[in-house]
């Protein structure tokens, strides 16, 4: 599976992570839609490492980022 540069380790970690985390939801959306980590990190104003940690569920986004994630996913109708 080609996921626009996403390492298979990141894709697997995202699939195995708890979907209740907004960062994991964001990861599933971005991997599916092939948004690069660079694009996502610029949008949220955080480092690429932070995005990877969100995607894998290792870190939980701060409330301000959680709200922005939920708003974005709601606008595009991403439900999982």
Folded structure, characterized:
This protein has 80 residues and is mainly alpha-helical. It is built from five helices and no strands. The chain has helices at residues 8-16, 22-33, 37-44, 48-56, 63-75. The radius of gyration is 11 Å and the shape is globular. The mean pLDDT is 92.
Q: Can you lay out the helices and strands and say which pair or pack?
A:
Layout lengths: L7 H9 L5 H12 L3 H8 L3 H9 L6 H13 L5
Helix pairs in contact: 2-4, 2-5, 3-4
Short description, anyone?
Helix content is 64%, strand content 0%. The chain has helices at residues 8-16, 22-33, 37-44, 48-56, 63-75.
Tell me the overall shape: globular
Radius of gyration: 11 Å
- How much β-strand is present in the residues? under 5%
Biggest sheet: strands, sense, closure? none
Q: Distance N terminus to C terminus? A: 20 Å
Count of runs of 4 or more consecutive helical residues: 5
Number of strands: 0
Defining key terms:
80 residues
């Amino acid at each position: 599976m080609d996921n626009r540069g996403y390492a298979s380790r990141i894709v697997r970690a995202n699939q195995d992570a708890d979907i209740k985390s907004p960062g994991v939801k964001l990861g599933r959306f971005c991997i599916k839609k092939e948004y690069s980590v660079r694009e996502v990190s610029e949008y949220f104003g955080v480092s690429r490492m932070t995005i990877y940690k969100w995607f894998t569920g290792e870190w939980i986004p701060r409330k301000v980022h959680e709200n922005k994630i939920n708003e974005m996913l709601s606008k595009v109708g991403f439900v999982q």
